[in-house]
Design goal:
Blueprint (H helix, E strand, L loop, with lengths): L2 H10 L5 H28 L3 H33 L10 H32 L2 H20 L5 H47 L2 H4 L2 H11 L1 H26 L3 H27 L4
Amino acid sequence: MKMTEIIKDAFQFPSRHTGRYAIYLLLSVLIVLFASGGFLTYSFGILDAENYLTGGIYIVIAALIGIIIEGYHIKVAKSGIDHDDEVPRFELFNDFMTGFDNFAVLLVYFSIPAILVALVAGDTNLFGSAIDVGREFLLQLFNVYIMDGSVDIAVISLFIVLNDFLTSLAITITVALVLFVIFAFLRFIAEARLANTGSLKEALNIYETAKDIRRMGIGRAIIVVLLVLVIIIAIELLLAMVLGNYPFLLSTFCIIITPYFLLVTQRAFGLLYSDIA
């Protein structure tokens, strides 16, 4: 399938059944509302047993809806693989069960870069240098304001430890960005594998997932992803420019189109994967 056809189809797809998109949008909004309610309840009533229980219930409800959404994403990817033009209907129980598998894919594909980044942070002594900066700051604060020490010497001493911290931080952030971009891409292909095979084992096979990317064509896959991202960013920037003076309208449009773009992305990866399915 041509790249332009993939992009066109993906952006049109969610609008082909406004009723089903409305359900998806409603569930997405409910996730935000329940999650926000849970965290706010914890923030303002953590010592109150009743609020503690209420906040937990809100977060659990948000998580359960989120699992249903993750399962629905697999169905959208499957529709792309099968070149099915119909927007899939919601089947709450089936979507919930599939969502567990998709959540496992998410957990594995993001825990790996998280562990690697933590190792890099430890190897570059990021945490130790951060502690050194705090300790040196307090020490020089004491020397200047209590012991009447030299401000210049304090600045130089602080700059030395701060330089080590910033170097470690820059290395860690660079590695984190590269790893998370790579594994985010792998995760989307893994979701397509899950949609195509229905097997969690196949979706978690990172080696075969990477081979799938080579089969699709690394350059072709990257171009499709970049085109989708560029169009999404362009639309969001345009909305920000047009509705910048109307924050309520801007927020409303963002609430409506953000879930839309998530479905666009899933559909695009499904169509992309269809060439090797």
